[in-house]
## 1
Amino acid sequence: MMTLILYTIFMIPICLMNLPMIFQYSNLLILIWLIFSGCWGFFNKISYFMAVDNISFNLILLVLLISSLMVISMMNYNWMPSFLFINLSLNMCLLIIFMSMNFMYMYISFEFVLIPLVILILGWGYQPERLLSGLYLLFYTMLVSLPLLILLVYMYMNLGSLFFDMMKFHSEFFLIHFTLMIVFMVKMPMYFVHFWLPKAHVQAPVSGSMILAGLMLKIGGYGLIRSSFLYEYMFMKYSYIWFSISLLGSIYISIICLMQSDMKCLIAYSSVSHMGLVIMGLITMSNLGLMGSYYLMLAHGFCSSGMFYMANIFYSRTNSRSFYINKGFLTYLPSSCMFWFMFCCFNMSCPPSLNFISELMILTSMVSFWYSSMYFFIFISFFCACFSYYLFSFSQHGIYSSLYSFSNVTCYEYLCMFIHLVPLIFSPMMISSFV
């Protein structure tokens, strides 16, 4: 896997020479190479501290595909060489996170990814409030990261190694469990520690929203999966705490979505609700829960990223994200209505999407963990359908405030929307190859 890291490093001249199409083709080339390299087994393509297994393989493909779509979304923006370099830096950090076999290497990349992300928000954001959103993101991460560094030093002193396949932790001390869990819960984010996400999403450019929704939230889920293999007993002993918070938090956040007047705010809060389902699936420590959470992370990466891109299409034409201005697009932007309808349907987990299969697996694992959680899941699913319908109906129906027709959608925009949709539709057909 050092091949992939070196390939990414040697893409730096492409960024500096301002060649966005070559950058995009290089990402897609390495993606195709990975698909046909056969590295989705138990630890394949092993180098000194990197490897790929069936957990990280699809997430690496997601990184390469979303970063290519980010280039499409920022074609008309200024400072393109700087953006390509920031994109490449994010790529490098995320690839090291998903390929690292050592907890310390993963932790360093986990924290370093914050720097290019804050630069992206501050440099290409929209309003002056982006300074405050970058501050929220910085302090939420710093607050939970330092205790984890101290814990890693403590674990190395006791275990003698920080390689995932050689670590086995047997402590029952709740503070250790809390320190190891909360750092990933903030990244997902879990209810109670989610306030940075709507701030960052609203102030970020479209590419920042795409990488936040498509990739940054998946780091938390990936970290939970890796850490759950280190100390299963403590993970199961205190699981009811995180399960309860996520169960109630998903319902509360779904209701909050119905109160939003900002399109990006609603999509950002819906991400918190879906990540609550991911946490509940992982906490059950069952095979169906793990598979369902993993598939929901992949499905959410494409669906939420696509919805943010669609919201930006409206924003670029009306200079507003408000529902009170962005309405009536069924008449004035009819060519995008079908894509918007499919994204909203998949966001509420309608078949035959990958979201539907993953939520079905999570529901089964939740019922096996606590039977009465089925009733809470009904409310979560109902409110999720409500805010998805609310998002579609308010944006597509009604009387538009202007008399100008925006019926032209560029080929780039069609391409980006289509690539977001294809994996959601065809992944259930190939789901057996993921297992």
## 2
Amino acid sequence: MSSRCRTHQQHGHHEHHILDYLQFLNDCPSSYHAAHLVAQRLVDAGFERQVESEPWSATPGGHVMVRDGATIAWVVPEYLAPTAGFRIVGAHTDSPTFVVKPHPTTRTTHGWEQINVEVYGGMLWNSWLDRELAIAGRLITDDGTEVLVRTGALARIPQLAIHLDRTVNADGLKLDPQRHLHPVWNVGTPADLMARVARDAGLHSAEQIVASDLNLIPTQGAAVFGADNQFIASGRQDNLSSVHAGLRALERLYDLGVPDSGDIVVFACFDHEEIGSDSRSGAAGPLLSDVLTRTATALGRNADGLGQMLAASWCVSADAAHSVHPNYVEHHDPDHFPVLGGGVVVKVNANQRYATDAVGQAMWRATCGAAEVPTQVFVSNNAMPCGSTIGPITATRLGIRTIDVGAGMLSMHSAREMTHVDDVVALSTALEGFWRSL
């Protein structure tokens, strides 16, 4: 193939990937939608659904299961050597948002009806002001069925006019999450919010709903912008950027058929990372351990055999990474300047907020070199403690060698985050290379 044909083919792949990513962002308004969509796409690719309450399957081929807002997929090769381990990519499906409280609405003495919400995760509150908001999540009906729902635009958190707060620009915006982050959705004649949710879910009435897990989302869809459409703007890119990258990598890998040999490929998308991962579907819970243990057991491995597999395993924790902000360069370490479009970011922290060590960096550098993917390093400013990821949790719980990586981002935890098209493609290419280097 000529270099011109190869370049054209790569451009087409790049464009298709971005279009698919934009659609994926729009189709995943909650962790439950994301988990079910990942599982369905893998089933469409030939994976077998695994029900946790049924006997575990470790036959050669792809398997996938969903637990609430989390999903895990794994591919067993035709031949599994005694020295084989697990080759894991971990991500998370949740994002900072507003969660609807059990008593969903309240009415003021002036006739305003508002949605009662609770802050979930470390949100940039101000970014949610003056945006049309929808409701998304899952409903549990009176017959025990789980129904996914997404409404149209329903609510808004209107900001106080500058005429009534003349010092807001000079002194900064100050928000009380109980009083000021209270979305309005109706005024005048009373309305039934859950009746609207039930209608949009295709139910006959709100009486069918016995419980729900619902959150708010901005209704503005994902979009590209900038010179040559190089940037992507959307909510929930932390961390759907990694979920989609891993999904696309796994689809490409499986498109070539079941591997003849090598490690067991695992793709784990957890929920509740933004609030510490302490749940049955979070990385600090038993989910990944359950899948690895039951898979090893189904393959005939005893406890020592499982230990050998874990010792031979790797985990890439893929989560959004900080890019240098051009207006706030003083908030970054002066010698570690990852920028949008510069390649996959490797995240390093001496205090183990990230799990990356020298062995992991060497592995990742070799992987990205073989995949022809550029990389860069993030280390936080010493005066600005960084966040954390599922990486240290996975390394601590299972003893698996782990490295933290991700696509660079600006406006992280905003209602509308910003990434670069080259980085989300590069992350997917690198993850595919990690799985292929078995």
## 3
Amino acid sequence: KAPASASVVRASVDGAQGGRGYANNLDGWIKESLAIMKAKGIPGTYEGLHRNIMRESSGNPNAQNNWDVNARNGIPSKGLLQVIQPTFNAYHVAGTAHDLTNPVANITAAANYAAHRYGSIDNVNSAY
């Protein structure tokens, strides 16, 4: 079951995928991302994704960091897993939206990045 915060942000997300039979909420975005990740050979679990999402954005797909070094350099971290645009561009996964704040695209690109850098999103336990 999705945390309460997911239902709060559900209505405010423009262009969220929520397709292919998945709910348009945090639970659905994670499940849709996991299906894409499985098809593309990207490791990760529901627990690993959820834990990192809650730490990075509290489940808000519109979250944006306006204070760290990336923000000061003009490329703020955005979305559920707080990805910067260059990282999103480099690790974007085909079949997802070309939109950094799209929940499924953000999760899947971040998991792809984490797989290349740390072996899996499951191995990430702090800012990455």
## 4
Amino acid sequence: MASTTTTPANGTAITTTITATTTITTITTTATTTTDALYRLLAWLSPAYPVGAYTYSHGLETAVEDGAVRDRDDLAAYIGAALRDGAGRVDGALLAAAYRAMAAGKSRVLDKVTELGAAWRGTAETALEAEAQGTAFLSVTLAAWPEPRLAAFMARHPRRIVHAVGFGAAAATHGVDLRPAVFGYLSAFAANLVSAGVRLVPLGQTDGQKATAALMPVVTAATEAALSADLDRLGTASPALDLFSIRHETQYTRLFRS
């Protein structure tokens, strides 16, 4: 008996086993992400990437002020609601739609997704949160990694591209696979709110990491929902979070912009 294994450039390993009477070929496909694409994705998701995410709490500051979020479990529940039923649900779907439109070269579809992303905000502060981060993200990304299609897209919609849409478009132009792009974006969204909660409640760093670990299944489920979402049927169901955001606009003492 003899076995040979070959690995073509597409990452598919083919193993052939030959015996006296039978030849068996086994094909194993492994999804790969190039080193360059992975490097970009990790850079974009880093807290050090200058999009100003640390200045936003997504209404969490008011929830803490009211006593609605008092401990680690409350914090995880708040963020989980945002991922399942609020901005996380909408933004994940918008990211996926923007990615697919950019990858397919469908400018009109991408423009419609952009307009939908700008309109789909429940409060003035969540609109600021999404659009300011989107503008900052695209500005620094184009400065660090120039890309003509992305530059043309930003020029068509100055200061109107929300973070999720800009992130999806950038991922498509730079060879980042869609699933890790969505999963990474939603993970960073959750991590930023955990960081805000650690400062606001306050919680210890260990409790913050425990909350992050507890949210992993929620992020995974939100990713799957985003990848299969139909924008014509998409909606949110998080009125309590919207009310916290609305009330934050007039909260007397504030550390965060939302």
